[in-house]
Amino acid sequence: MLNKAKRIGQHEAQAVMAFVERQFALSRRYFAWEIVFLFYTIVNTLTIAFIAIGMQEQGHQVKPDYIFYLVIGALMWGFLGVIFREVSESVSWERWEGTIEQTFMAPIHRLTHLGGICTYAVLYGFIRTILVLGAVGLIVGMHLPHANFAGALLVLAVASLSFVGLGLMAAVLPLLSPEKGAQATHIMEGLILLVSGIYYPVSALPQWLQMFSVFSPATYALQGVRAALLEGAGWSILGPILLRLFLMAGVLIPLGLFIFGLAEAYAKRAGLLKRNG
Amino acid sequence: MFAIECQNVCKSFVDGPFWAKKRKRVMAVKDISFQVPRGEIFGLLGANGSGKSTLIRMLSTLLLPDAGQLRILGHDPTADPMQVRRLINRVAVDAAFFKKLSARENLNYASRLYGQSPSRQASRMQWILNHLGLAPEKIDEPIEDMSRGMQQKVAIARALLSVPPVLLLDEPTTGLDPVSRKQVRSFIQHLQQDEGTTILLTTHDMEEAQALCQRIAIMAKGEIIAVGRLPELQQQVAHPTESPADISLETIFFRLTGVTQEEIHYVEQS
């Protein structure tokens, strides 16, 4: 009994690694596109940094660390957005390639399948963010004398769990309809970008929009990372933010898996897994 | 215990968007029943849209039946999909891969999902590809650079890596050249004879069905309209004045369904 459980555990762990390796192999094959997208992200982050520098040069009264406020927003959105997209688009990708049936009839649990995709998404997001941070640091310079880097990293790691949950929910849409699902996923991503205070404080939003920011994990992730890096916030400030992010992940991941399970069952009843959906 | 059992299986689909006033319900599989003993090659013959692929998808845990009972080596694909997935593999008519990855990368990935050890998997992969006539130097080429026939051979190799006791082959030789068809057929025979694999084979190719299958079911409009060994089917359609043994499978199919082989191919190409 114990041996069987051990064997199944090893098989599932092997399958998680198979998904991670498959995704990295695909990134390697699309290496030129990876470079192009990375270049674009670096340039985008730099232009945002230069907006703040330009405002200072034009004599606008802005805080000295405003440049880092914006750069952190761009980096964080780069990281969380990549996780969200990688998780949700993994299903779109398989729908377009026609491999979704092959994946769904493999003898592995859905948690293993999605766990593999999410593991890759978090690793890929970290690598990209480090590369963008390095490039921006070289060109603009990143002077953060009071930064609590460990705290910022912890907030980032916990926030990524919540985004995995959101990605799982978004992945349901292309499962049901490849094209319409991909369109709806982009709208969902845009709404999170709008309400989470990526480049501005949430208070800048109209009152009716501010209430939506409460439900976005990115809102708390940004608060936490900015507080850690710009103000060197300690655990007394980061603790409640981390707790909130943990709670959100605790709700969003099981909810994402549950909704995915419902959608899979519906797709199998309605015959939606075929290549042309 | 039978390797494959279907009892009064039905499946329908609803056509049209959910907001449409009139949505059409299409019966894809109507009250199908048959059993396949272990180690048999069982053929399903039918024109496009006759319900063959729907039936294979239900057996593969990819579709849920509306009614009836399915069993693979005693396990219900709806109630116990994980156990069924360990016992089967499937080759679909459209070989779906990650086209940018090489055949080796695709096969390694698939075999790890089935819990194969890398050393065992490498030797079996080589052995299968040799039997199917796929040159070793092709294995590291991206799938997108391979011909349709080569892709189909890799798809067959992928299904066989996991050594499934039950193999579901959905038109595996469609689009292959005559030499490749022969290689695939001889390999299917080898699997049955030497590995004892039970095979459910759907095909349009009468010659293939006749050469490979111990029993054949003929499907039309979602129903099985005849099932049996070739002599039994010949007996069923023979006119009083003709010798049953002279009746070809194509003639049997035409008399039972009203569809000729040419018409099947015409539908395939159009």
Roughly how much helix do the residues of chain A carry, as a percent range?
A: over 70%
Unreliable stretches covering 5 or more consecutive residues of chain A: none
Strand content of chain A: under 5%
Give a count of the beta strands of chain A, DSSP E runs of length 2 or more.
0
Identify the overall geometry of chain A. globular
Strand content of chain B: 15-25%
- By DSSP, the count of extended strands of chain B is 9
Assembly form of the protein: heterodimer
The share of residues in helices of chain B is 25-40%
Mean pLDDT of chain A: 90
Cα(first) to Cα(last) distance of chain A is 40 Å
Low-confidence stretches of chain B: 266-270
Please compute the radius of gyration of chain A using only Cα atoms: 20 Å
Characterize the main sheet of chain A. Answer: none
Main interface: chain pair and counts = A-B, 32 and 33 residues
Largest sheet of chain B: 6 strands, mixed
Give average pLDDT of chain B, whole number: 89
Please render the helix and strand layout as text.
The complex is a heterodimer of chains A (277) and B (270).
Chain A: H1 2-29, H2 31-57, H3 66-97, H4 100-104, H5 110-140, H6 149-176, H7 178-195, H8 207-213, H9 217-230, H10 235-270
Chain B: E1 4-15, E2 24-36, E3 41-46, H1 52-59, E4 67-72, H2 81-87, E5 88-91, H3 103-113, H4 118-132, H5 148-161, E6 166-170, H6 178-195, E7 198-203, H7 206-212, E8 215-220, E9 223-228, H8 230-237, H9 249-257, H10 261-269
Parallel strand pairs in B: 3-7, 3-8, 5-6, 6-7
Antiparallel strand pairs in B: 1-2, 1-4, 8-9
